[in-house]
Amino acid sequence: MKESCFCGREGELEDRTPMLDGDGYEVLRCPKCGHLDRLEWLPEDARRPVLEEAHGRKVGRLTAV
Predict the structure, then answer these.
(1) pLDDT of 2-14, one tens digit each?
(2) Total domain count, the chain
């Protein structure tokens, strides 16, 4: 899923870094500016697969090193 960040970065939403925010909520962090997106604009049944894909891509990046 393509999206744009406030900083102007464009790319796959799932390429952002999954993490927990200060409230313990799963978010995706923009690699360019650090903006945290809770994905509240997505329904829960759509948000979960996006977060799972982002986690999978993060693991893939870590094991490729």
Answers:
(1) 888 889 898 888 8
(2) 1
